[in-house]
Amino acid sequence: MSEITETMLGGRFTFPGTSLTVRRIGYGAMQLAGPGVWGPPKDPDGAIAVLREAVAAGVNHIDTSDFYGPHITNQIIRQALHPYPTGLVIVTKLGARRPPDKSWQPAISPYDLTEGVHDNLRNLGLDALDIVNYRATGASPAEGSIAEQVTALADLRRKGLIRHIGLSNVTAAQLAEAQAITDIVCVQNNYNLAQRHDDALIDDLARQGIPYVPFFPLGGFTPLQSSTLSDVAGRLGATQMQVALAWLLRRSPNILLIPGTSSVAHLRENLAAGQLTLSPQVLEELDGIAATAEAPH
Protein backbone atom coordinates (compact mmCIF):
# COMPACT_ATOMS: atom_id res chain seq x y z
CA MET A 1 0.00 0.00 0.00
CA SER A 2 1.31 3.44 -0.89
CA GLU A 3 2.61 6.05 1.52
CA ILE A 4 -0.33 8.21 0.45
CA THR A 5 -2.71 5.60 1.90
CA GLU A 6 -0.62 5.41 5.07
CA THR A 7 -0.98 9.16 5.55
CA MET A 8 -4.71 9.14 4.75
CA LEU A 9 -5.35 6.49 7.39
CA GLY A 10 -3.38 8.23 10.14
CA GLY A 11 -0.01 6.55 9.64
CA ARG A 12 0.92 3.15 10.99
CA PHE A 13 1.67 1.41 14.28
CA THR A 14 3.22 -1.96 15.11
CA PHE A 15 1.89 -4.00 18.00
CA PRO A 16 4.85 -4.45 20.42
CA GLY A 17 6.88 -7.62 20.12
CA THR A 18 5.01 -8.65 16.97
CA SER A 19 5.28 -8.41 13.20
CA LEU A 20 1.73 -6.99 13.06
CA THR A 21 1.72 -3.46 11.63
CA VAL A 22 -1.60 -1.72 11.03
CA ARG A 23 -2.84 1.61 9.75
CA ARG A 24 -4.12 3.73 12.62
CA ILE A 25 -7.69 3.95 11.29
CA GLY A 26 -9.20 0.50 11.37
CA TYR A 27 -12.74 -0.83 11.41
CA GLY A 28 -14.98 -2.09 14.22
CA ALA A 29 -17.39 -4.80 13.08
CA MET A 30 -19.97 -4.70 15.90
CA GLN A 31 -22.59 -2.86 13.83
CA LEU A 32 -22.60 -5.53 11.12
CA ALA A 33 -25.01 -7.64 13.19
CA GLY A 34 -28.71 -6.85 13.52
CA PRO A 35 -30.33 -4.37 15.93
CA GLY A 36 -29.00 -4.68 19.47
CA VAL A 37 -25.97 -6.54 18.08
CA TRP A 38 -28.26 -9.54 17.69
CA GLY A 39 -29.08 -11.71 14.72
CA PRO A 40 -28.38 -11.08 11.05
CA PRO A 41 -28.34 -7.61 9.48
CA LYS A 42 -31.27 -6.37 7.45
CA ASP A 43 -28.92 -6.00 4.49
CA PRO A 44 -26.35 -8.85 4.44
CA ASP A 45 -25.00 -7.79 1.05
CA GLY A 46 -24.51 -4.27 2.39
CA ALA A 47 -22.53 -5.62 5.33
CA ILE A 48 -20.24 -7.54 3.00
CA ALA A 49 -19.82 -4.45 0.83
CA VAL A 50 -18.70 -2.36 3.85
CA LEU A 51 -15.98 -4.85 4.78
CA ARG A 52 -14.72 -5.15 1.21
CA GLU A 53 -14.72 -1.36 0.81
CA ALA A 54 -12.75 -0.95 4.05
CA VAL A 55 -10.04 -3.37 2.96
CA ALA A 56 -9.94 -1.87 -0.55
CA ALA A 57 -9.38 1.55 1.05
CA GLY A 58 -6.35 0.25 2.94
CA VAL A 59 -7.83 -0.74 6.30
CA ASN A 60 -5.90 -3.70 7.71
CA HIS A 61 -7.11 -3.78 11.34
CA ILE A 62 -10.58 -5.23 11.98
CA ASP A 63 -12.00 -5.49 15.49
CA THR A 64 -14.67 -8.13 16.13
CA SER A 65 -16.02 -10.70 18.59
CA ASP A 66 -17.93 -13.93 18.30
CA PHE A 67 -20.47 -12.61 20.81
CA TYR A 68 -21.54 -10.02 18.22
CA GLY A 69 -24.65 -11.59 16.76
CA PRO A 70 -23.66 -14.00 18.34
CA HIS A 71 -21.47 -15.63 15.65
CA ILE A 72 -23.06 -13.52 12.88
CA THR A 73 -20.42 -10.80 12.59
CA ASN A 74 -17.53 -13.25 12.33
CA GLN A 75 -19.41 -15.28 9.74
CA ILE A 76 -19.96 -12.13 7.67
CA ILE A 77 -16.25 -11.25 7.93
CA ARG A 78 -15.35 -14.72 6.70
CA GLN A 79 -17.84 -14.55 3.85
CA ALA A 80 -16.63 -11.12 2.76
CA LEU A 81 -12.87 -11.48 3.10
CA HIS A 82 -11.76 -15.13 3.33
CA PRO A 83 -9.15 -16.09 2.22
CA TYR A 84 -7.85 -13.09 4.09
CA PRO A 85 -5.45 -10.68 2.38
CA THR A 86 -1.84 -10.68 3.54
CA GLY A 87 -1.30 -8.17 6.33
CA LEU A 88 -4.89 -8.06 7.57
CA VAL A 89 -4.97 -8.17 11.38
CA ILE A 90 -8.20 -9.43 12.95
CA VAL A 91 -8.53 -8.68 16.67
CA THR A 92 -11.27 -10.42 18.60
CA LYS A 93 -12.38 -10.38 22.23
CA LEU A 94 -13.63 -12.78 24.87
CA GLY A 95 -15.41 -12.40 28.18
CA ALA A 96 -19.13 -12.42 27.36
CA ARG A 97 -21.87 -14.60 25.95
CA ARG A 98 -25.30 -13.87 24.49
CA PRO A 99 -28.10 -16.13 25.76
CA PRO A 100 -31.43 -16.29 23.89
CA ASP A 101 -32.85 -13.37 25.90
CA LYS A 102 -30.29 -11.18 24.02
CA SER A 103 -28.61 -10.06 27.26
CA TRP A 104 -24.86 -9.77 27.78
CA GLN A 105 -23.60 -12.23 30.38
CA PRO A 106 -20.06 -12.88 31.68
CA ALA A 107 -18.18 -15.83 30.18
CA ILE A 108 -14.92 -15.69 32.07
CA SER A 109 -14.06 -19.18 33.31
CA PRO A 110 -11.09 -20.92 31.64
CA TYR A 111 -13.62 -23.26 30.02
CA ASP A 112 -15.66 -20.32 28.68
CA LEU A 113 -12.56 -18.63 27.31
CA THR A 114 -11.36 -21.82 25.62
CA GLU A 115 -14.77 -22.34 24.03
CA GLY A 116 -14.78 -18.72 22.94
CA VAL A 117 -11.44 -19.11 21.17
CA HIS A 118 -12.72 -22.16 19.31
CA ASP A 119 -15.93 -20.30 18.34
CA ASN A 120 -13.87 -17.45 16.89
CA LEU A 121 -11.54 -19.82 15.05
CA ARG A 122 -14.43 -21.74 13.53
CA ASN A 123 -16.53 -18.76 12.47
CA LEU A 124 -13.60 -16.73 11.14
CA GLY A 125 -12.10 -19.74 9.37
CA LEU A 126 -8.71 -19.44 11.05
CA ASP A 127 -6.19 -21.83 12.59
CA ALA A 128 -4.93 -19.20 15.05
CA LEU A 129 -6.18 -15.78 16.20
CA ASP A 130 -3.83 -12.80 15.70
CA ILE A 131 -4.85 -10.98 18.89
CA VAL A 132 -7.43 -11.85 21.53
CA ASN A 133 -8.52 -9.20 24.01
CA TYR A 134 -9.87 -10.31 27.36
CA ARG A 135 -12.75 -7.97 28.15
CA ALA A 136 -13.18 -7.60 31.89
CA THR A 137 -16.76 -7.69 33.10
CA GLY A 138 -18.80 -4.61 33.95
CA ALA A 139 -20.10 -1.59 32.11
CA SER A 140 -16.89 0.28 32.94
CA PRO A 141 -13.48 -0.72 34.37
CA ALA A 142 -13.63 -1.91 37.97
CA GLU A 143 -10.80 -3.21 40.14
CA GLY A 144 -10.54 -6.96 40.67
CA SER A 145 -8.11 -9.69 39.75
CA ILE A 146 -8.03 -10.90 36.14
CA ALA A 147 -5.12 -13.28 36.72
CA GLU A 148 -7.18 -16.44 36.18
CA GLN A 149 -8.45 -15.23 32.81
CA VAL A 150 -5.10 -13.93 31.56
CA THR A 151 -3.39 -17.16 32.63
CA ALA A 152 -5.99 -19.15 30.68
CA LEU A 153 -5.31 -17.06 27.56
CA ALA A 154 -1.55 -17.46 28.04
CA ASP A 155 -2.08 -21.24 28.09
CA LEU A 156 -4.06 -21.02 24.84
CA ARG A 157 -1.23 -18.95 23.37
CA ARG A 158 1.29 -21.66 24.28
CA LYS A 159 -0.95 -24.16 22.48
CA GLY A 160 -0.76 -22.04 19.33
CA LEU A 161 -4.43 -21.02 19.19
CA ILE A 162 -3.70 -17.39 20.05
CA ARG A 163 -0.69 -15.40 18.80
CA HIS A 164 -0.98 -12.35 21.07
CA ILE A 165 -3.05 -11.13 24.02
CA GLY A 166 -4.70 -7.79 24.74
CA LEU A 167 -7.07 -6.39 27.35
CA SER A 168 -10.34 -4.46 27.27
CA ASN A 169 -12.33 -2.55 29.88
CA VAL A 170 -9.48 -2.65 32.39
CA THR A 171 -7.74 -0.45 34.94
CA ALA A 172 -4.03 0.39 35.14
CA ALA A 173 -3.68 -2.04 38.06
CA GLN A 174 -5.25 -4.86 36.03
CA LEU A 175 -2.88 -4.11 33.16
CA ALA A 176 0.08 -4.40 35.52
CA GLU A 177 -1.27 -7.67 36.92
CA ALA A 178 -1.65 -9.08 33.41
CA GLN A 179 1.82 -7.94 32.34
CA ALA A 180 3.32 -9.92 35.22
CA ILE A 181 1.80 -13.03 33.60
CA THR A 182 2.30 -12.47 29.85
CA ASP A 183 3.03 -9.83 27.23
CA ILE A 184 0.09 -7.50 26.56
CA VAL A 185 0.05 -5.99 23.06
CA CYS A 186 -2.93 -3.60 23.30
CA VAL A 187 -5.55 -2.10 25.60
CA GLN A 188 -9.07 -1.28 24.45
CA ASN A 189 -11.19 0.98 26.68
CA ASN A 190 -13.98 3.54 26.46
CA TYR A 191 -12.40 6.92 25.67
CA ASN A 192 -13.44 10.00 23.73
CA LEU A 193 -13.54 13.80 23.87
CA ALA A 194 -15.82 13.76 26.92
CA GLN A 195 -14.65 10.53 28.59
CA ARG A 196 -11.01 11.09 29.46
CA HIS A 197 -10.44 9.06 32.62
CA ASP A 198 -7.70 7.08 30.83
CA ASP A 199 -5.45 10.04 29.99
CA ALA A 200 -2.66 8.86 32.31
CA LEU A 201 -3.01 5.25 31.14
CA ILE A 202 -2.71 6.29 27.48
CA ASP A 203 0.48 8.19 28.21
CA ASP A 204 1.93 5.26 30.16
CA LEU A 205 1.11 2.84 27.33
CA ALA A 206 2.71 5.22 24.82
CA ARG A 207 5.92 5.08 26.83
CA GLN A 208 5.76 1.27 26.62
CA GLY A 209 5.01 1.28 22.89
CA ILE A 210 1.62 -0.36 23.48
CA PRO A 211 -1.38 0.79 21.43
CA TYR A 212 -4.53 2.10 23.09
CA VAL A 213 -7.71 1.41 21.14
CA PRO A 214 -10.63 3.61 22.20
CA PHE A 215 -14.13 2.38 21.59
CA PHE A 216 -17.22 4.61 21.44
CA PRO A 217 -15.34 7.61 19.93
CA LEU A 218 -18.57 9.60 19.89
CA GLY A 219 -20.11 8.14 23.04
CA GLY A 220 -21.50 4.84 21.74
CA PHE A 221 -25.12 3.99 22.47
CA THR A 222 -25.72 7.45 23.97
CA PRO A 223 -23.93 9.79 21.54
CA LEU A 224 -22.02 12.75 22.88
CA GLN A 225 -24.03 15.98 22.77
CA SER A 226 -21.67 18.94 22.56
CA SER A 227 -22.32 22.35 21.09
CA THR A 228 -18.54 22.85 20.90
CA LEU A 229 -18.13 19.72 18.82
CA SER A 230 -20.99 20.63 16.50
CA ASP A 231 -19.64 24.19 16.12
CA VAL A 232 -16.15 22.95 15.27
CA ALA A 233 -17.50 20.40 12.80
CA GLY A 234 -19.59 23.09 11.12
CA ARG A 235 -16.62 25.43 10.75
CA LEU A 236 -14.44 22.66 9.31
CA GLY A 237 -17.12 21.34 6.98
CA ALA A 238 -16.77 17.95 8.65
CA THR A 239 -19.03 15.56 10.54
CA GLN A 240 -18.87 15.40 14.33
CA MET A 241 -17.55 11.85 14.07
CA GLN A 242 -14.75 12.97 11.76
CA VAL A 243 -13.71 15.66 14.25
CA ALA A 244 -13.89 13.22 17.18
CA LEU A 245 -11.74 10.70 15.30
CA ALA A 246 -9.23 13.32 14.14
CA TRP A 247 -8.88 14.53 17.74
CA LEU A 248 -8.13 10.98 18.89
CA LEU A 249 -5.44 10.60 16.22
CA ARG A 250 -3.84 13.81 17.49
CA ARG A 251 -4.23 12.87 21.17
CA SER A 252 -1.39 10.33 21.13
CA PRO A 253 0.55 8.44 18.43
CA ASN A 254 -0.24 5.08 20.06
CA ILE A 255 -4.01 5.48 19.61
CA LEU A 256 -5.57 3.15 17.04
CA LEU A 257 -9.14 3.76 15.88
CA ILE A 258 -11.86 1.18 15.17
CA PRO A 259 -14.95 3.22 14.21
CA GLY A 260 -17.84 1.01 13.17
CA THR A 261 -20.65 1.43 10.68
CA SER A 262 -22.91 -0.66 8.48
CA SER A 263 -22.93 2.01 5.74
CA VAL A 264 -20.36 2.39 2.97
CA ALA A 265 -21.01 6.14 2.91
CA HIS A 266 -20.35 6.47 6.64
CA LEU A 267 -17.28 4.25 6.31
CA ARG A 268 -15.82 6.63 3.73
CA GLU A 269 -16.55 9.59 6.02
CA ASN A 270 -14.83 7.87 8.95
CA LEU A 271 -11.74 7.01 6.91
CA ALA A 272 -11.51 10.62 5.70
CA ALA A 273 -10.95 11.73 9.32
CA GLY A 274 -7.27 10.91 8.82
CA GLN A 275 -6.99 13.84 6.43
CA LEU A 276 -8.68 16.39 8.71
CA THR A 277 -6.34 19.06 10.08
CA LEU A 278 -7.06 20.48 13.54
CA SER A 279 -5.43 23.80 14.40
CA PRO A 280 -4.03 24.49 17.89
CA GLN A 281 -7.06 26.73 18.55
CA VAL A 282 -9.48 23.98 17.55
CA LEU A 283 -7.62 21.43 19.68
CA GLU A 284 -7.88 23.78 22.65
CA GLU A 285 -11.62 24.12 22.11
CA LEU A 286 -12.05 20.35 21.85
CA ASP A 287 -9.93 19.73 24.95
CA GLY A 288 -12.44 21.85 26.86
CA ILE A 289 -15.29 19.43 26.16
CA ALA A 290 -14.21 17.00 28.89
CA ALA A 291 -14.17 19.72 31.54
CA THR A 292 -17.68 20.77 30.53
CA ALA A 293 -18.89 17.16 30.54
CA GLU A 294 -17.55 16.55 34.05
CA ALA A 295 -18.75 19.82 35.56
CA PRO A 296 -21.62 19.51 38.05
CA HIS A 297 -25.05 20.31 36.63
Properties at a glance:
about 300 residues; about 40% helix; alpha/beta; seven-stranded parallel beta sheet; TIM Barrel
What would your notes on this structure say?
β9, α6 and β10 form a beta-alpha-beta unit. 40% of the residues lie in helices and 14% in strands. It has 297 residues and is an alpha/beta fold. It has a domain at 20-185: Alpha-Beta Barrel (TIM Barrel). The model has no long low-confidence stretch (mean pLDDT 95).
What's a quick, concise take on this entry?
The chain is α/β, with parallel strands linked by helices. Helices cover 40% and strands 14% of the residues.
Give the SSE map.
Blueprint: H1 3-8, E1 12-14, E2 21-23, E3 27-28, H2 44-56, E4 61-63, H3 72-81, E5 89-94, E6 96-97, E7 105-106, H4 110-124, E8 129-135, H5 147-158, E9 162-168, H6 172-179, E10 187-190, H7 199-208, E11 212-215, H8 227-236, H9 240-251, H10 264-272, H11 280-294
Parallel strand pairs: 3-4, 4-5, 5-8, 8-9, 9-10, 10-11
Antiparallel strand pairs: 1-2, 6-7
Helix pairs in contact: 2-3, 4-5, 8-9
